[in-house]
Amino acid sequence: MVEPATAIVAAARRASARMADRDTPFIFDDWYVAAFADEVGRTLFARTLLGKKILFYRTEDGTAVAMSDRCAHRSYPLSEGTLEGDTVVCGYHGFRYDAHGDCIEVPAMAKCPRSIGVKRYALVETGNLIWIWMGDAETADLAKLPETAFQTSAEWVCSKGYLHLAGNYVSLHENLLDLTHLSYIHARSFGTPEYARAPFRTEIGDGHFLVHREVIPTLLPPVWADPMGLAGVTTAARIATSEFMSPGFHRVTVSFYDSAVPEAKRQVGTIRTAHLPTPETHSSTHYFIVHGRDFALGDPDATGVMHDRLFQAFEEDVEALGKLEHMLAETAPEDMYEISVATDGPSVAMRRYLFQRARSAEVWAP
Ligand code: FES
Ligand SMILES: [Fe+2]
Questions:
Q1: What's the 98 CA to ligand 1 centre distance in angstroms?
Q2: Residue 313 belongs to a domain with what CATH number?
Q3: Does ligand 1 come within 6 angstroms of the Cβ of 71?
Q4: Is 262 within a domain?
Q5: 44, 148, 212, 318: least surrounded by Cβ within 10 Å?
């Protein structure tokens, strides 16, 4: 057999038609990381998010603001203009905008016409992260803001990083929810052969999708074995929980210990990683990452070593997802199908959820 039976392919195509993919419209009514806090300052900074060109800066009192980067007059990028006090002056004909995106001065006119302006976006800053609500600012729902308090907690030591992914954000979410890829994509970094075959359980909720996997016994990779003092220990345990939390937030929590040590005497170390994908375009993603650990807190060397090793592994995902994106983009529609197996349950449910969210939005255009 060189290809699955026609009936299987037809069923796969029907299922795929209800799952988000690289062509599905973006979900605007939610929070996404726009930037790390230290990226936005007293200079004009532009970034494309969910296909929109957005301008960022801080006002003189330090408040971060975001508005459309496209001048309302003739579409010149406002980020090519100048920041004067709390206002932005367009570099083409000098229209001046305040921090709300309202035009307050047109140099060629004695009186500024009313009701000219560009769209402003709601921002919230938590710790090192600046979150943006991509829908109308008036509808920004603080109750939906992802919880990432660990990044500023004294109980965690964190580091952060950014990767530019030449792939769509749906594929990244699916990658994070199916960590069986650790045994393959990460075979040379933090994956181990037994990871993909370890027992697991899943939870499929309304907008929350979880996979919990217990790998016991295992040999921990150096990135965690070294700071945990478990190098060479063949009875180690690796307990991983991967959770889709929102379109802009995926949380991975992993605990390590020596399973040969009685529970009461075990030293358990935990890491938590906030994977924060923000679509740039349909084929590219801003991949923000905050990684924390609750062990070896007083070991500054561990922070740098772990960061470097982890980001080498995350680069493996970026490389692989770039190749996947290329394949998806180059495949003719009539040749396209994806067959899901039982263990894809959470991924399929997550992709259906994204599809439904996109379909219920006003921007949906089938
Ligand atoms: S394009 Fe900005 S003022 Fe004309
Ligand atoms: Fe990965």
A1: 15
A2: 3.90.380.10
A3: yes
A4: yes
A5: 212
CA-CA distance, 180 to 192, in Å (whole number)? 10
The finding on whether 90 has its CB within 6 A of some atom of ligand 1 is: yes
Q: Determine contact, residues 257/248, Cβ cutoff 8 Å.
A: no
pLDDT tens across the length of the chain (366 residues):
666 778 888 888 888 889 999 999 999 999 999 999 999 999 999 999 999 999 999 999 999 999 999 999 999 999 999 999 999 999 999 999 999 999 999 999 999 999 999 999 999 999 999 999 999 999 999 999 999 999 999 999 999 999 999 999 999 999 999 989 999 999 999 888 888 889 999 999 999 999 999 999 999 999 999 999 999 999 999 999 999 999 999 999 999 999 999 999 999 999 999 999 999 999 999 999 999 999 999 888 899 999 999 999 999 999 999 999 999 999 999 999 999 998 899 999 999 999 999 988 755 444
194 and 78, same structural domain?
no
Report d(CA 86, CA 308) in Å as an integer: 38
Residue 93: alpha-carbon gap to chain centroid: 37
Q: Is 195 in the pocket of ligand 1 (CB under 6 A)?
A: no
Q: How many folded domains does the chain comprise?
A: 2
Label residue 45 left, alpha or beta by phi (over 0 means left) and psi (-120 to 50 means alpha).
beta
- Do 251 and 302 lie in one domain? The reply is yes
Whether 73 lines ligand 1, by a CB cut-off of 6 Å, is yes
Q: What element of type H or E holds 31? A: strand 31-36
| Closest ligand to residue 172's CA | 2
pTM: 0.95
Q: Are residues 226 and 305 in the same domain?
A: yes
> Which residue has the CA at smallest separation from atom 3 of ligand 1?
93
* Identity at 142, one-letter amino acid code: L
| CATH at residue 73 | 2.102.10.10
Q: Which of 316, 243, 318 is nearest to 288 (CA)?
A: 318
Q: Which is nearest to 40 in space by CA: 130, 145, 163, 131?
A: 130
Task: Judge if the beta carbon of residue 337 lies within 6 A of ligand 1.
Answer: no
Where in the sequence is the domain holding 85, given as residue range(s)? Answer: 31-140
Q: Which ligand is nearest to the CA of 320?
A: 2
Residue 60 CA, ligand 2 centroid: distance in Å: 40
Is residue 164 located within the same domain as residue 128? no
